[in-house]
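BUG: 3D viewer hangs when loading the predicted structure for this chain

Environment: internal workstation, default settings.
Expected: structure renders.
Actual: progress bar stalls at 90%.

Input used:
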Amino acid sequence: MLYYAVVFFVVALIAGILGFGGIAGASASIAQFLFFLFLVLFVISLVMQVVRRP
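Structure tokens produced before the viewer hung:
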């Protein structure tokens, strides 16, 4: 999932350089959403690992 966030970020950078503002904004917002979703799932998995251990 972090890979896809980076891919959308790169697409946003390239679209921004080429002057496609709408596509750049949409790609940047998708990348931001995926990154925060990755962080939330990562924290949940860390908490679950701590809870499972005896």
